[in-house]
Specification:
Blueprint: H1 10-18, H2 20-23, H3 37-51, E1 99-101, E2 106-108, H4 110-120, H5 132-143, H6 163-177, H7 182-195, H8 197-200, H9 234-244, H10 255-266, E3 273-274, H11 282-285, E4 296-297, H12 299-304, H13 310-314
Antiparallel strand pairs: 1-2, 3-4
């Protein structure tokens, strides 16, 4: 019997990946009660920051776009950030740390993983480790894993509920994107306008509470993730989109549809990524837990990674 993983529910995927005995132990929502005392206060603070990252007083100065953590780590039925069942759920994440990161070529803590996202998806600066904001965000994510067994991940810094889906999706969509042509870009634009523009805007600038996906505002400020973010990678972005979009209809896009949509979105203007420009001076930041200290990306280099010329894909020379 052939099984289509993209159309399975979260519980079914967990059943296949973790086995039947894991089912009763796998939460599908946040715990019903916060921890007591100061720990509970810190968890609540972290939840608030993840909901309002770009405007929260503790993190707004470190965010360089109009995104929030909930822009990717979607709210579940309980309304809390990171509890939606698709790829990027926070549930189970804390159980995997410390974990090895191929990108940083080092063993990362949960705080490292969260803080590094600010440099990429938030197009901003990396928060200083052990600051109130950093601890609070890690406290909230850890709370979502309460009661789950620990199993440190030696391959990737990712929730056990996501790791198989990420690896499968990244490999699968890499094969598809390497064959992309201008016709796929044109189809991606049509699909975006039909399935995505009503929420994210035809120009990618976002609509109301729905996040932007590319471009700049009237002041020349970038609106969305930069080219160092996972969403900027043609294979990872497609895997995330198929799992989560359209909102409330995750798993309904066909493989080629998800691939073409992200081919179109990621070919639009996004800020270049330069790791050194995303770090505070060492006198302020302290130790940066990574063996990779130089890293740059652009829209052009991200397409070249898959053997693609972005000019040929778009049919222009922007």
């Amino acid at each position: 019997m052939k099984t289509n993983l993209t159309k399975l529910s979260l519980s079914a995927i967990v059943l296949l990946v973790m086995g039947t005995n894991a089912m009763a132990q796998t939460p599908t929502a946040a715990p019903k009660t916060y921890p007591a005392g100061e720990v509970g206060k810190m968890v609540k603070l972290g939840e608030d920051i993840l909901m309002h990252t770009d405007t929260h007083p503790l993190t707004k100065d470190m965010v360089g776009d109009n995104l929030k953590c909930i822009s990717c780590h979607l709210r579940g039925a309980d309304g809390k950030p990171g509890t939606a069942p698709g790829i990027a759920t926070f549930i189970g994440t804390a159980t995997a740390f410390p974990a090895y990161s191929k990108r940083e070529k080092s063993v990362q803590t949960l705080q490292d993983r969260i803080n590094n996202c600010f440099m990429r998806s938030m197009n901003g600066k990396r928060p200083i480790i052990d600051t109130k904001a950093s601890v609070a965000m890690a406290a909230y994510v850890t709370w979502l894993s309460e009661g789950m067994p620990m199993k440190m991940n030696p391959k990737m810094p990712c929730s056990p509920l996501n790791s198989e889906r990420w690896m499968h999706g990244a490999k699968h969509f890499a094969k598809i994107q390497k064959k992309a042509t201008h016709a796929n870009y044109v189809n991606g634009q049509k699909l975006y306008e039909a399935k995505c523009a009503s929420c994210h805007g035809k120009d990618g600038a976002g609509m109301g509470t729905f996040p932007p996906l590319w471009g700049k505002n009237g002041k020349g400020e970038w609106l969305a993730y930069n080219t160092g973010a996972g969403m900027s990678k043609l294979n990872k972005g497609a895997a995330w989109v198929q799992s989560n979009m359209p909102l409330g209809q995750g798993g309904t896009l066909k493989d080629q549809e998800a691939a073409d949509i992200m081919l179109y979105v990621d070919a639009q203007p996004h800020a270049d990524f330069n790791l050194q420009k995303r770090l505070y001076p060492s006198s302020k930041m302290g130790y940066y837990n990574s063996k990779v200290l130089k890293e740059t990306h652009s829209v052009r280099s991200n397409f070249k990674q898959f053997g693609l010329d972005v000019d040929a894909i778009r049919g222009d020379k922007k």
